[in-house]
Known about the structure:
Structural Genomics Hypothetical 15.5 Kd Protein In mrcA-pckA Intergenic Region, Chain A, Pseudouridine synthase, 17 strands, about 20% helix, about 25% strand
Amino acid sequence: MRSNNNKNKMSRSGSRRQEKPAIKGRAxxxxxxxxxxxxxxxxxxxxxxxxxxxxxxxxKGSKKRVxxxxxxLNRFIANAGVCSRREADKFxxxxxxxxxxxxxxxxxxxxxxxxxxxxxxxRLNAEKKVYILLNKPKDFVTTTDDPHADKTVMELVKDACxxxxxxxxxxDRNTTGVLLFTNDGDLSKKLTxxxxxxxxxxxxxxxxxxxxxxxxxxxxxxELEDGPIAADAxxxxxxxxxxxxxxxxxxxxxxxxxxxxxxxxxxxxKLDRVYFxxxxxxxxxxxxxxxxxxxxxxxxxxx
Length: 303
């Protein structure tokens, strides 16, 4: 019956009306309010879409995967907190690493749990993975070691664990908000690599009111010295104070939020990251840290 009705409608109108295509970039820019009423993975504002993908066992014709506890030697050394993988390769080539009593100088050698791995004579143990969330205050530099910095973020998490952890990505000295620390190199690489487009939301306080034209321009894209950039979403946080802006962006380029507004003649007085890859600073005072829950860790690894 539905198809017959459709045919009748077409005969009376002569032809089916074509729907107008949506125009991207010119719609009124909006962003979900960036308050602190968010929890790391609960439905809140802003909401993070989670797309469930088929597992290997669910995929048609997929083969059963065989898992091994073997890992590359450079990864084992990095997980033990000695150094990065690249630095581990140099130590291996220099003959400073042995496995089960034999010096190893070749790249790509794999080891398994129970192997006696030693660096410069000291036995190494693979560390457990640690995930720490900090609500970063102003005037702290995001680095593991900087002799020229008065204060670094590592000072704020020095008592969080025994393992060697490091910040995932960077926040400027004067930028506050959500900052993740871990010794999970694979997750860190995933969260910071541009191809994964991890979502970040900032609250911005400007020195003057942001005009609607400039807001639309930021939504459509501006041309900076290192290429074009557009906000994923942007809006006033409330209608009464149009110098406070919420902006959602996934780019990890250096000082990108500040540079967007400076390009249009604004000075950023305050910049606070309230959301990063599903994590928020809810119930976490400025300058304090907490360990991630198992559910939050699982969520990060699913992205």
